[in-house]
């Protein structure tokens, strides 16, 4: 495969931005500067970016309670996201959504979602709209392994396959549903095999390898866009932090976590391959690191200085206007 240098740099920047964003949130929450539950995406960057790198502006994605990475990968502005997490009026949802409900329709982000599996039917609906209106758009659902035991998952896959909708269902199998090991509640080794029940294409990617995700997601997206129907793409991945900031992590061993973090970090694997194959140079990557660091710092500074929402507008944006 011929890799485009600018696309690779952009992908690295987004992965690095996700990592830096999540690490900064850890600091802010721990310092008591930010409230609410934070479900961090660090460790899974290759999945969101590997998929979204091949989506167009008119394509849609739905997310989960662990949605910061998907938002950044789909192009939602970091400054607006940071302000949203601080509950400020300048937030992407005017400070009303918070971490688990960030949405930006103009960017194709249908929203993070605090309800497990709830984004899957939203994506299915977006894919149906794209097919009926013949827009050529593709809709992608990101969800965890636990969501594949929800009725919304099975109903959506059945519908999408039957109608050959332009959808890609990306299950981020990070080995745990909250605090429960996946193999304790799911009898199959590979969740991707569940696609067979719906006569749907499926694939399995190494979710810690951007290049593998990019390749397999690319096939699925192209299939969807060309009328070939949906795909269930399982990405085997791992979250570097707990289920939420402050999670005591008593349900997994330190040895297991260290193995994933030290030997399978998606950012380090990306850099190793990019340098080894001459796709990028170290100086370019370090420049990206610096730019990301500055962007995150500026986002925090702006968010802390931004105003809180006006209480007089508490009833705004509650109801949708009736179409003319």
Please count the beta strands (DSSP E, at least 2 residues each): 7
Q: Could you give the order of the helices and strands?
A: HHEHHHEHEEEHEHEHHH
Give the amount of beta strand, in percent: 5-15%
Q: What fraction, in percent, of the residue positions are helical?
A: 40-55%
- Return Rg in Å: 19 Å
Mean pLDDT: 95
Tally the helices: what do you get?
Answer: 11
**Unreliable segments of 5+ consecutive residues:** none
Largest sheet: 5 strands, parallel
Shape: globular
Structural class: alpha/beta
Q: Report how far the terminal alpha carbons are from each other.
A: 49 Å
Strand order of the largest sheet: 1-2-3-7-6
Structure description:
With 324 residues, the chain is an alpha/beta fold. It is 44% helix and 10% strand. The chain contains eleven helices and seven strands. The chain has helices at 5-30, 45-52, 68-73, 78-85, 119-133, 151-163, 182-185, 210-225, 254-263, 266-276, 282-305; strands spanning 60-62, 139-144, 167-173, 176-177, 180-181, 201-206, 231-236. The strands form two sheets. Strands 1-2-3-7-6 form a five-stranded parallel β-sheet, sandwiched between helices. Helix 4 packs across helix 11 (282-305) and helix 5 runs parallel beside helix 6 (151-163). The radius of gyration is 19 Å and the shape is globular. The mean pLDDT is 95.
Any chance you could write out the topology, listing elements then pairs?
Blueprint: H1 5-30, H2 45-52, E1 60-62, H3 68-73, H4 78-85, H5 119-133, E2 139-144, H6 151-163, E3 167-173, E4 176-177, E5 180-181, H7 182-185, E6 201-206, H8 210-225, E7 231-236, H9 254-263, H10 266-276, H11 282-305
Parallel strand pairs: 1-2, 2-3, 3-7, 6-7
Antiparallel strand pairs: 4-5
Helix pairs in contact: 1-2, 1-11, 2-8, 4-11, 5-6
């Amino acid at each position: 495969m011929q890799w485009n240098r600018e696309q690779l740099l952009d992908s690295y920047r987004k992965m690095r931005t996700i990592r830096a964003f999540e690490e900064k949130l850890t600091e802010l929450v721990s310092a008591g500067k930010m409230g609410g539950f934070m479900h961090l995406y660090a460790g899974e960057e290759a999945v969101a970016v590997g998929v979204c790198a091949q989506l167009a502006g008119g394509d849609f994605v739905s997310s989960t309670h662990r949605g910061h990475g998907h938002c950044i990968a789909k192009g939602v502005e970091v400054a607006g996201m940071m302000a949203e997490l601080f509950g400020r009026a300048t937030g992407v949802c005017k400070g009303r959504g918070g971490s688990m409900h960030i949405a930006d329709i103009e960017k194709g982000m249908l929203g993070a979602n605090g309800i497990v599996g709830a984004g899957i039917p939203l994506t299915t609906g977006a894919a149906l709209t794209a097919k009926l209106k013949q827009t050529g758009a593709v809709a992608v659902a990101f969800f965890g392994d636990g969501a594949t035991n929800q009725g919304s998952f099975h109903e959506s896959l059945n519908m999408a396959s039957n109608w050959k909708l332009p959808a890609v269902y990306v299950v981020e199998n990070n080995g745990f549903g909250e605090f429960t090991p996946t193999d304790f509640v799911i009898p199959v080794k590979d969740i991707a095999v569940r696609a067979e029940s719906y006569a749907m294409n499926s694939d399995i990617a190494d979710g810690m390898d951007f290049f593998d995700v990019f390749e397999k997601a690319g096939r699925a997206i192209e299939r969807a866009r060309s009328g070939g129907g949906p795909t269930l793409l399982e990405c085997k991945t791992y979250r570097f932090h707990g289920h939420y900031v402050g999670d005591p992590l008593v349900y997994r061993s330190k040895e297991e976590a260290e193995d994933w973090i030290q030997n399978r970090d998606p950012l380090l694997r990306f850099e190793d391959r990019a340098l080894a194959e001459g796709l990028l140079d170290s100086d370019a990557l370090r420049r990206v690191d610096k730019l990301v660091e500055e962007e995150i710092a500026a986002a925090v500074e702006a968010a802390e200085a931004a105003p809180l929402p006006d209480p007089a507008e508490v009833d705004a944006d509650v109801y949708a206007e009736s179409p003319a």
